[in-house]
Write a structure and sequence with these properties.
Radius of gyration: 19 Å
CATH superfamily: L-arginine/glycine Amidinotransferase, Chain A
CATH topology: L-arginine/glycine Amidinotransferase, Chain A
CATH architecture: 5-stranded Propeller
Distance between the termini: 23 Å
Oligomer: single chain
Order of helices and strands: EHEHEHEEHHEEEEEHHEEEHEEEEEHEHE
Strand content: 15-25%
Length: about 350
């Protein structure tokens, strides 16, 4: 089978126009212990901010769950005429990682299926893995099943970020660790770079080191470093030498000095602050302002009741002058070890 790149497809940047955003209504109480009802209200606020700019495609398990979701969304003032409910059961609600990854060529989009396996950590992923196939059937899109060296290739959307011009950023901790949460046993840097090129059209791969403490995925880049335009990245920085994140983040800042974009120019890298550490039951939570989501109508940014909330929102507002930057309360949301970007998956406009 020809690869997407061979057929002229590549992954567009998140800030490019969307047709829709995909979400999965929260249903797994183990992700948000004793907080599931609170999370439903957070979802309602997310949808309220997304709907003015694009369709929201919301996966639900049943007619009863759709009825529940409609009630929350209506009470929150979300525009239900912009929400399409899709009957598809999921194990969890982290659509960034299990949902359809879209690629595009002139006038056409398609879906890449990266064979989700719950971050090589949890046993319940079978329903989530079927989401890309269900999306391709629903939308009538071509589906590319990612393979490398004769086997299924596993990747999560939160483990990569692209500038839409050929450059992709990721982390060694997530995909090159030989012992912890190994997605594709036996594959190395060159194998990943080949798969990035073949299935996402990425020709220039930038590798950071480790992600942040508390990240259940073992190093996803969407808690660490993000493109905000073709030539500019934001990356989180920890200024407290006593914090566990200080050294790995400092090492990443050393690395970016040598980064080059697809045209061999240096990217501009803007620092984002970190909120004060958040804990639940003794576990460090991966609270990060880098987990924002760029939609047509707004940039949604997780906030944590922290003095640095205002600073992060101000930095991102200057970098996205074409749309409002909106804070979404995420102190409860991050109990699930992820926030806004982890929950969403963009469907680019053709």
């Amino acid at each position: 089978m020809e690869t997407p790149a061979a057929l002229g497809f590549s992954m567009p940047a998140e800030w490019e126009p969307h047709e829709a955003t995909w979400l999965a209504w929260p249903n797994n109480p183990t992700d948000w212990p004793d907080k599931l009802d609170t999370i439903r209200w957070v979802y309602a606020e997310i949808v309220r901010k997304l709907a003015p700019g694009e369709i929201v495609r919301m996966m639900v398990r049943s007619a009863a769950e759709e009825k529940m979701a409609r009630r929350y969304l209506q009470r929150a003032g979300a525009d239900l005429s912009r929400v399409e409910f899709i009957r598809h059961a999921t194990n969890r609600s982290w659509t960034r990682d299990s949902g359809p990854v879209f690629v595009r060529r002139a006038g056409e989009t398609a879906i890449v299926h990266f064979h989700f396996n719950a971050w090589a950590k949890y046993p319940d992923w079978q329903k989530d893995r079927r989401v890309p196939e269900a999306a391709a059937r629903l939308l009538g899109k071509a589906l590319f099943r990612a393979r490398h060296q004769g086997r299924e290739f596993i990747l999560e959307g939160g483990g990569i970020d692209v500038n839409g011009r050929g450059t992709l950023i990721t982390t060694e901790e997530c995909y090159l660790d030989p012992k912890v949460q190994v997605r594709n046993p036996g594959l190395g840097r060159a194998d990943y770079e080949t798969a990035f090129r073949d299935y996402l059209g990425a020709t220039n791969i930038l590798w950071l080191g480790a992600g942040i403490a508390g990240d259940d995925t073992h190093g996803h880049v969407d808690d660490l470093c993000r493109f905000v335009n073709p030539r500019t990245m934001v990356m989180i920085r920890e200024d407290n030498p006593a914090d566990v994140n200080y050294r790995p983040l400092a090492e990443n800042w050393e690395r970016v000095r040598d980064f080059r974009l697809e045209d061999a120019s240096r990217p501009e890298v803007i620092p984002l602050p970190m909120p004060a550490p958040l804990f639940f039951d003794g576990d460090r939570l991966p609270a990060s302002y880098a987990n924002f989501y760029v939609s047509n109508a707004a940039v949604l940014v997780p906030t944590f009741n922290d003095p640095n909330d205002r600073l992060a929102l101000g930095i991102l507002s200057e970098l996205f002058p074409d749309r409002p930057v909106v804070g979404i309360h995420a102190v409860d949301l991050v109990l699930g070890f992820g926030t806004l970007h982890c929950l969403t998956q963009q469907q680019p406009a053709a």
